[in-house]
Amino acid sequence: MLSIFFRMCDYASVRWPGLFARDKRGVTTIEYAILASGLAILIYSLIAEGGEFSNTINSVFKRVTELIEPDDGTGNQ
Fold it and tell me: Residue 73: inside a domain, yes or no?
């Protein structure tokens, strides 16, 4: 009985890796998940508070606001 168990284990150890190597289901899903997580990290790093992109956008909006509504020095705009 024990020898049958060992023969089954030997068969499974030889047979199963080949089955998993040929099975391509889910590969595209994993690739898309990796791409999505990379894009999420990139977007977060661009728009996060204190990031270079965020600082640049804030300075552009501040400059546009100053050009539209110039400060007359009295504190009243």
Answer: no
